[in-house]
Amino acid sequence: MAGLVFFSSRSGNTARLVERLGLEALRLPQAGPPPELDAPFVLVSPTFADGEGRGAVPKPVIRLLNNTRNRAFLRGVIAGGNRNFGATFALAGEVIARKCSVPVLYRFELAGTETDITRIRAGLARFWAAQESQTCLTQA
Prior knowledge:
Elements: E1 3-6, H1 13-21, E2 25-27, E3 41-45, H2 59-66, H3 68-73, E4 74-81, H4 91-100, E5 104-109, H5 114-139
Parallel strand pairs: 1-2, 1-3, 3-4, 4-5
């Protein structure tokens, strides 16, 4: 299975969700240059947006995806948010998916629930299995 790359703000909500998933994951730094990735990954990102939806994608995620090599390995996005913000709930996922032509795999609120954890684990297993079978078909 390929990896997860995530950003978590000081609130730690996304980090708590990823930790509970129990899957290998790389955390993006708050500041400084992003890592250079060399394998397919799913990005987990919180949403930071004002009332108009501006600024939805955190700056460290933007820095990661501004690197064309990193962007080429992006396969999907899982987005977090807060339902109190209505239409901008998990908006970062939609912005990233649209700009990078990848699917939004899941949306979760705050640090997620146990149901979210179960669904994300199962969904990622199915997603990576489908990715693997597509790779095998294109190589045949």
